[in-house]
Amino acid sequence: MTSQSNTATWVEQDQTQLHPLQHPSRHSNPLVIERAEGIYLYTSDGKKILDGMAGLWNVNIGYGSTELADVAREQMITLPFTSNFAGMTNVPASRLAEKLSGYAYPNLKTTLFTSGGSESNESAFKTALFYWQRMGQKNKLKIIARNSAYHGISMAATSATGISRYHTPFGPQVPGFLHIPAPNPHRYDGDIKAGETVGQAAARALEETILREGADTIAAFIAEPVQGVGGVIVPPDDYFPLIRAICDKYEVLFIADEVITGFGRTGEMFALNHWRVQPDILTFAKGITSGYIPLGGMQISDAIREAIWNAPEAESYMHGYTYSGHATACAVGLKNIEILEREHLVRNARTSGEILLEGLGTLTEFPQVDNARGKGLICAIEIVKDKTSRTPDMATTNALMSAAMQAGLRTRAVGNALAFSPPLTITAEEVETIVQTMGDVLVKWNSK
User: Fold this and answer.
1) With contact defined as beta carbons under 8 Å apart, do 222 and 144 qualify?
2) Is residue 271 classed as helix, strand or coil in its secondary structure?
3) CATH code for the structural domain at 67-342
4) Under CATH, which number does the domain 3-61+344-446 receive?
5) Which residues contact 248 (CB under 8 A, 6 or more apart)?
6) Beta strands 40-43; 33-37: pairing state
């Protein structure tokens, strides 16, 4: 039997799987992705789709790398896995940790490995609390996050997430998480004083929250440099320097969630470098292996490392995961970084991202497209009912996403925005294909 004739069987078998973000209306007739190459997906029934989302913001080096496959195979034969708990280690984990020491930001030299972004952010929260306990500031238990933030699906990560639909189906959230307005230049939902920029107003919201709650109760502030699931929100340039200064002033740890933006996505290897700012804790995942195998991690400052190292045994840092420092995953991560560097893919993300953003900007001629925004190869167009009211139009956003898929382009609806986050290997001509295809979809939509 051919793949096409098997599709119905595979779809039927898939009904025994509970998918992430499951709802029957979105999964009644799923595409069966059978293979992929470069920036393209191929379905079992013969469709070719330009993956404008690089999987889930993460297939940075593109599909079909035999180098990563060969490294994984060799490591699996040599040593696929062993416990990385204290008292044991393995060569790939040690080598990758050394590679990452000071790699993202000079002040972050120590890494805890995880299997993904949610675990990384859980680790960051627990580590922040551990640090302040060791410092004798036992009331520092609260975490400040932002509206429209996305930090993962586990309980604390969900509680940090500032999107209500991730909360309501599951009942009460973990206590101690607070939310403030995001620095959205297009839709700031806080108050702005006369003469303030959006960046200044959003930073002031952090300071006011710290003062209201009491600085002695705030453990950390967490932020994505560019908010992904919340709508591809790129902050104004004055925002993060102000945030860093406020965190320093009130002794609040700054956690940078670079799960999406890390490893080249924005045209810098790590996104806070756009603003010359360093966090106290960094979380990463996705792009470190380009999604070929699960791997994530958390990096910490020397001060936090020393608090962990110097704790008495009775108060040891009792945290970690079965797959922390997974040998095969770390071997793939090392090779993936080598490819990112060798192929100059961070530079390509910057130059191709400029072309993509400029092209998406031309789509604002359509009545539904309010604005185009982005940083490197993470961009979006915002969809509204009309440009006078600027009322968000989620229904049309979802419909346009489906229409684009039918036209051979995969994008993703994030609120009332359509996100574009293709592999960093994309060429200028392939970027033009994204823009042209989306333009054709909008032309057809407006001719109804």
Assistant:
1) yes
2) helix
3) 3.40.640.10
4) 3.90.1150.10
5) none
6) antiparallel
**CB neighbours of residue 17 within 10 Å:** 9
**Nearby residues of 181 by Cβ (< 8 Å), 6 or more positions away:** 146, 147, 188, 189, 190, 201, 202, 205
pLDDT of residue 1: 42
Residue 29: how many other CB atoms lie within 10 Å = 8
- Is there a contact between 245 and 269 (Cβ–Cβ < 8 Å)? no
282 near 306, Cβ under 8 Å? Answer: no
Alpha-carbon dihedral 307, 310, 316, 320, rounded to 10 degrees: 60
Identify the sign of the CA torsion 287, 288, 290, 296: negative
CB atoms within 10 A of CB 266: 27
Amino acid at residue number 113? F
Q: What is the pLDDT of residue 10?
A: 87
Phi/psi of residue 155, nearest 5 degrees: -60, -50
Q: Domain spans of the chain?
A: 3-61+344-446, 67-342
- Cα 291 to chain centroid distance, Å, stands at 12
Q: Please give the pLDDT value at position 446.
A: 96
Residue 4 has pLDDT above 70, yes or no: no
- Please say if the pLDDT value at position 425 is more than 80: yes
pLDDT digits (tens, 9 = 90+) for 161-217: 999 999 999 999 999 999 999 999 999 999 999 999 999 999 999 999 999 999 999
- pTM value is 0.97
Task: Report the 10 Å Cβ neighbour count for 99.
Answer: 15
Alpha-helix runs per DSSP H in 177-226 = 198-213
